[in-house]
Amino acid sequence: MARALAGTMEEPAKAGELASLQAGARVAWVQRAADDLFVAWNDARDIFLLFHGRDFDLEEKECAIRARGSSCQTQAECLVRCYEAEGEEIILRLNGRFSGVIIDRRADRVLLFNDRFGASRVHVHATADGLWFASDAAALLAALPATRRIDPRGLGEFFSLGCVMQNRTLFAGIMLLPPGSLWSLHADGRVEKRRYFSPEAWEQQPQLAPEEFCAQLTELFAKIVPRYRRGPGQAGMSMTGGLDSRMVLAWAGAKPGELPCYTFGGPYRDCADVRIGRRLSKLACQPHHIIPVVPGFFSQFLELAERTVAVSGGTMDVSGSVELHANRLARKIAPVRLTGNYGSEVLRANIAFRPRAHDPALFTPEFFPHLASAAETYRNESAGHRLSFIAFKQVPWHHHARLAIEAAVLEPRSPFLDNALVALAYRTPFGWERSPVPALRATAAGNADFAAVSTDRAVRLRPVPVLGAIEHCWQEFTAKAEYAWDYGMPQALVRATRPFQAWHVERVFLGRHKFYHFRSWYRDELSSHLGSLNLEFDRLPPCYAAEKPRRLVEAHTTGSENRTLDLHRMLTLHFINRQLAAPPCRN
After folding, report:
1. Is the pLDDT of residue 19 over 70?
2. CATH of the domain at 121
3. Is 417 part of any domain?
4. b/e map of 389-420 (b: 16 or more CB within 10 Å)?
5. Same domain, yes or no, for 225 and 101?
6. What domain range includes position 400?
7. Are 287 and 365 within one domain?
8. In a 10 Å sphere around its CB, with 0-12 CB exposed, 13-18 middle and 19+ buried, how is residue 571 labelled?
9. pLDDT at 22 over 50
10. 399: CATH
11. Strand 175-176, strand 181-186: pairing
């Protein structure tokens, strides 16, 4: 028996269900108003498709259908007709973030598949009577009470790395469909687990010469970016001060005033993202909006934090609450969010997470080894091709958290996970793996005016001698100083500045690069919320040493220690218990 379920979302939705189908399948779904989930039958009603996501190579498939003398009205209908003509081969030609189910009555089977990067998650759990799968972990947890147990190994990785690795989840028995999977489920209970794509196919490509690589990158970006903007729904451009969002804006192909741009803003000053985003939007002749995240965020923090954990299936810690709030405001501008996400990862091989050191005194002797083993797992998984680790492990395991927050509110789109672009990135010239030059050249080719605008780290295509170096040093200093007065504030500095706490000296440094500042917010604006949860900390799973949660809260809110990251994890675990997991044993 194959059962598919859908789960938590933010928008009004409509439900659907198909039961007693061939191959013993039962499929249920919830469709958002954002229309990123599609269902369709073929004319003979012996092939059914449930498709979640979007195929950005759909135009070519529509042309092929018309050439065969047929037509289609929706994405799902188009894909059903392609499956009729090509069979499983159509899965290999899908391009985007997607997952889906095909019920093929002709072959008496069900096909379960996802995109080649695993960016669209499918959670699976096998029982004696069949295979359960869902796009949302919450759906499986609700249907299968036995899975509502936190896995200590996964929790150790979440604390240490910010994510769970090896296609596991926080919950016992719930796994992730590996990237690029095509599973066949048969009526007799057989499950054929296959991968239709492996990164080795891209790793074996020869590297290109620098000039050829830059030329191909520019040509490809000019081709693919308009597809991501033209999809259904009004698109808005999420602007930052970095390289990647400007690269998208340069090639979006939008007429003046056609692509509203916006940047998230903080409470103290216009950060670099706001200043640069505003300037770039003006050069592109597009309107620019600043989305302020406070003061409204503070009063809603507990609701936002709980919702963040729920919609992400526990993958995003409570710091994502500020982004959930900001994206709710962004949706009022446009229901589609066009971003430069994954640009630094794909084009400059940026690894976004690494093991974090922990104080053994905070945890029980039984739990601490799980934190230590997380670092070993990370070392093993990160060995090998750097870009393959990023695209096929970091993307589905680590980046899913923030993607889930965005996707719960609007439809995020990024051309940097386009199949052709990632394939080209594997051909980056030797020695250019971390270089910004290819992105700068491609951006300047799309909009020459952008070449003169420095990034938030003072990177530009043709820096001014001496002045460019001074600007770069200043931006690097302010970025590191902001981190040192926020998340990364050393305990010695906390103690040294505690007598001057009322003066809020940190505001000299905060807000220059970031729009949220949880260290000071936990101590000041959000301290009452932390106090209101104090009585429930004894319901946390038995991982913390006795009384440590209360002591962490007290140490941070009184200003004697910086426990920002510990509070993130602890509060997240509190809401996982409340929303997703079974009531735990007491410490």
Report:
1. no
2. 3.60.20.10
3. yes
4. bbbbbbbbbbbbbbbbbbbbbbbbbbbbbbbb
5. no
6. 203-579
7. yes
8. buried
9. yes
10. 3.40.50
11. unpaired
pLDDT band at residue 465 under the 50/70/90 scheme: confident
Per-residue confidence (pLDDT) for residue 515, from 0 to 100: 95
| DSSP secondary structure, 112-170, as one string | EEE-TT--S--EEEEETTEEEEESSHHHHHHH-GGG-SB-HHHHHHHHHHSS--TTB-S
Q: Is residue 509 part of a domain?
A: yes
Point out the domain boundary residue: 164, 197, 230: 197
Q: pLDDT tens for residues 535-550?
A: 577 677 789 998 888 9
| Same structural domain, 308 and 370 | yes
pLDDT digit string, tens, across residues 481-540: 999 999 999 999 999 999 888 899 999 999 999 999 999 999 999 999 988 876 577 677
d(CA 554, CA 489): 17
Out of 165, 197, 229, pick the residue that ends a domain.
197
> Residue 464 — very low, low, confident or very high, per pLDDT cuts 50/70/90?
confident
C-beta separation of 562 from 491 below 8 A: yes
586 inside domain: no
CA distances from 92 to 65, 87, 88, 396, 419 (A): 17, 10, 8, 19, 11
Residue written as token pair 């602890």: 570
The whole-number average pLDDT for the span 453-459 is: 93
Q: What is the mean pLDDT of the chain?
A: 90
CB atoms within 10 A of CB 457: 17
pLDDT recorded at residue 60: 85
Query: Does the residue 532 lie in any domain?
Result: yes
User: In this predicted model, what pLDDT tens digit does every residue of 218-231 receive, in sequence order?
Assistant: 999 999 999 999 87
Same domain, 419 and 550: yes
